[in-house]
Specification:
The protein has 32 helices and 17 strands. By secondary structure, it is α/β, with parallel strands linked by helices. The chain folds into five domains: 194 residues, P-loop containing nucleotide triphosphate hydrolases (Rossmann fold), CATH 3.40.50; 194 residues, P-loop containing nucleotide triphosphate hydrolases (Rossmann fold, 3-Layer(aba) Sandwich); 101 residues, Winged helix-like DNA-binding domain superfamily/Winged helix DNA-binding domain (Arc Repressor Mutant, subunit A), CATH 1.10.10.10; 68 residues, DNA polymerase, domain 1 (Orthogonal Bundle), CATH 1.10.150; 120 residues, no CATH class. Helix 16 crosses helix 17 and helix 29 runs parallel beside helix 32. The longest helix has 22 residues. It binds adenosine-5'-diphosphate (ADP). Adenosine-5'-diphosphate binds next to helix 3. GO terms for molecular function: helicase activity. Its EC number is 5.6.2.4.
Length: 709
């Protein structure tokens, strides 16, 4: 079956995402493949579709048990036979999966790299036709990567023992040049085609706030986003506990996760989050590896993380299903102090420490930059020609008002000056507010001219203002445990009336009231099914699919299959249950007419038949109108080999093709001679006899021309 049809039938998607089609074709051409795609970019489909097309089984090597289970559940729910073998399973279970594999019942088998040590496993594989080895999270092979796993080094010797050698595909979301070369060498990929689809995640909105009172902010945010799933990352266990307590008291459905908790409690909380039983997870960075939950709608960083790599990875856990996600970073200068402390605590070499400090500085600069945040991140990862404005980050969409706070700032600065830059934020606030606190009186601060000059503010409001001035670098907070606030040159200028202080006040985003009633009904039925089948809800349908259903209100099978993410198998399994609810809702609210919908979908089927030009025919039409292969590649953003494949396909379907345009003159004879010599049209045999630089598409073209003549 054609790969487009497979995409529609199993996954319910109409089009491939950037890079997917080329990667799949490359694997199907039996060429080793190395793909670097962002989180949520759709890597899995790139090796799963070839697994479906090729004879035999695909072995998928993946580092995390939880991820493998998720993937296999998800494949099975799509109607694709897949199994997993891991160390937590009983011998019985392992045997059962092995049996299924040897019976040819599985198209994909997931294993951890440690399994490659097992001789019994190797023996099993020898009895099977392994067509592809797909290596997920390939950066684990490199010592330079951030998740080095020594067992990834076993992959290459293992593959060498497999006869014949299967095609290898390797996937990762992060790879610097160093790591990329390392991976290619360690996995011994054979002249791999490397596909880099870029790091951008357009559905994520990046937001940084410097001047917020963090507690007020999250309470307000969660209040406005009650129904959504999200993660709040904090830098320390203590901070996690504090936020957790704060939110629990407000009756928010919240869980916590950090390395100080016992395994069982952590696991339970994680499951509850995956199953949508709790909406908010407050966690340290120990949480998230191996969590594929696709409907995380926001990730809030309560503290700034140590570097952009960590930030992008953590923030990237939002919106994996392609629906909008918010990534909010709440910055305060104290975060920098904490991160520096963490670096100092490590046993890293001096060089490594310097490198960590440098990365930290880039992170701090991100918090202060006024340019497009997306551009900043993408350029950090080495992307070129990034647009200046993305219109989906807090700097591009700046909706803040600017307020002149010079007078208040001067009051604060002069107070700092009068208490000789020797006290912290609390003392400053107390003096300005005119507190009768013992310490204030003992120090005779009630005699200062600045005593009580901000009486009309609360202590909290004054403290918040001081923090704003610290964040804007008018004041400096020292790095000791009891931080002291000092003036910077910027503040002196303000005191001398040479400069004004303008504060940006963010207009709070109020939740837009949307009618979610059908979406909520669908979400509930999804949750019921998830409980019944013991799989996380997002594996049944993504939020994106449910959202589309609640917007388009499909009333029959044809309309349901038009919803993104609803493939035939999924429809068979769950479609009717969802349809029933939608029809019920439609009846109650009188939105669409059932008969008209049936008529519409008949028409749309007809229209579809008439209208949709398959991708390969689009290429053919351009080619016939005189575009060169290069023109088509650049205009359609396709690879040379894909364009040639398209033309070949049209030729085979009987459209007229000038084969000579696809066959370099000097290569035709040698290919024909080889075919005669081995007296066979078997592509692989022919290819092996020919020089390396002659590719499959040229051979196929010669065969077609030859047979056609
Ligand atoms: P990755 O492994 O790259 O992080 P996944 O393979 O988990 O990403 O895919 C992320 C999400 O994108 C999944 O929900 C997947 O079904 C969806 N997806 C993948 N390919 C497509 C496509 N061509 N069209 C629409 N959605 C897609």
């Amino acid at each position: 079956m054609d790969i487009h049809n497979l995409l529609k039938k199993y996954y319910g998607y109409d089009e491939f995402r950037k890079g997917q089609e080329e990667i799949i074709n490359n694997i199907l051409d039996k060429k080793d493949t190395f793909a670097i795609m962002p989180t949520g970019g759709g890597k899995s489909i790139c090796y799963q579709i070839p697994a479906l097309v090729m004879e035999g089984i695909t072995l998928v090597i993946s580092p995390l048990i939880s991820l493998m289970k998720d993937q296999v559940d998800s494949l099975n729910s799509l109607g694709i036979n897949a199994g997993v073998i891991n160390s937590t399973q009983s011998t019985e279970k392992v045997r059962e999966t092995m049996y299924k594999a040897s019976n040819g019942e599985l198209k994909l088998l997931y294993v951890a790299p440690e399994r490659l040590d097992s001789e019994a496993f190797f023996m099993l594989l020898q009895t099977l036709e392994v067509s592809q080895v797909a290596i997920d999270e390939a950066h684990c092979a490199s010592q330079w990567g951030h998740d080095f796993r020594p067992s990834y080094r076993k992959i290459s010797p293992f593959i060498k023992r497999l006869k014949p050698r299967p095609v290898i595909s390797a996937f990762t979301a992060t790879a610097t040049i160093e790591v990329k070369n390392d991976i290619t060498n360690i996995l011994e990929l054979r002249s791999p085609e490397v596909f880099v689809t870029g790091f951008d995640r357009q559905n994520l909105e990046f937001i940084t706030y410097k001047n917020e009172n963090k507690r007020d902010f999250i309470l307000d945010y969660l209040n406005n986003n009650k129904d959504k799933s999200g993660i709040i990352y904090a830098a320390t266990r203590k901070e996690v506990e504090n936020i957790y307590t704060l939110l629990s008291k407000k009756d928010i459905s919240v869980g916590k996760y950090h390395a100080g908790m016992d395994d069982l409690e952590r696991k339970e909380n994680q499951e509850k989050f995956l199953y949508d039983d709790i909406k908010v997870m407050v966690a340290t960075n120990a949480f998230g590896m191996g969590i594929d939950k696709s409907n995380v709608r926001y990730v809030i960083h309560y503290n700034m993380p140590k570097n952009i790599e960590a930030y992008y990875q953590e923030a990237g856990r939002a919106g994996r299903d392609g629906e909008d996600g918010e990534c909010i970073l709440l910055f305060s200068p104290r975060d920098v102090v904490l991160q520096k402390y963490f670096i100092e605590q490590t046993v890293f070499s001096t060089d490594r420490k310097i490198s960590e400090y440098r990365k930290l500085q880039s992170m701090v600069d991100y918090c202060y930059t006024t340019k497009c945040l997306r551009k900043y991140i993408l350029e950090y990862f080495g992307e070129e020609d990034v647009k200046d404005k993305c219109d989906n980050c807090s700097n591009c969409k700046d909706s803040s008002e600017v307020v002149d706070i010079t007078i208040d700032a001067q009051k604060i600065f002069s107070c700092v000056y009068r208490i000789r830059e020797r006290y912290g934020v609390t003392m400053i606030a107390e003096v300005l507010r005119g507190s009768k606190n013992k310490k204030v009186l003992n120090l005779a601060f009630d005699k200062l001219s600045t005593y009580g000059i901000m009486k009309n503010y609360t202590i909290k409001e004054i403290k918040d203002l001081v923090n704003v001035l610290v964040a804007e670098r008018y004041l400096l907070q020292t790095e000791e445990e009891f931080a002291v606030v000092k003036l910077t040159n910027k503040a002196i200028n303000v005191l001398k009336n040479n400069e004004k202080v303008m504060q940006k006040v963010h207009k709070k985003k109020k939740a837009v009231k949307v009618d979610n009633s059908l979406f909520d009904i669908l979400r509930n039925i999804r949750k019921e099914i998830a409980k019944r089948e013991s799989i996380p809800p997002y594996i049944i349908f993504t939020d994106l699919s449910l959202r589309e259903m609640s917007k388009k209100i499909p009333l029959n099978k044809v309309e349901m299959l038009e919803i993104k993410g609803v493939g035939e198998k999924k429809f068979e399994k769950y479609g009717e249950e969802f349809l029933e609810k939608i029809i019920e809702y439609n009846d109650e609210n009188n939105i669409r007419n059932l008969e008209e919908a049936a008529l519409d979908s008949d028409k749309s089927k007809e229209k579809d038949k008439k209208k949709k030009t398959p991708s390969h025919v689009v290429t053919y039409n351009m080619f016939s109108k005189g575009s060169s292969i290069e023109d088509i590649c650049s205009e359609r953003d396709l690879k040379d080999s894909t364009v040639k494949e398209h033309l070949l396909k049209c030729g085979l379907e009987g459209l007229e093709i000038d084969w000579d345009m696809l066959i370099p003159e000097e290569k035709e004879k040698i290919i024909l001679d080889t075919i005669k010599e081995i007296n066979s049209y078997r592509l692989k045999e022919i290819k092996e006899k020919l020089p390396e630089d002659i590719d499959y598409s040229t051979i196929k073209a010669v065969i077609c021309k030859h047979k056609a003549v």
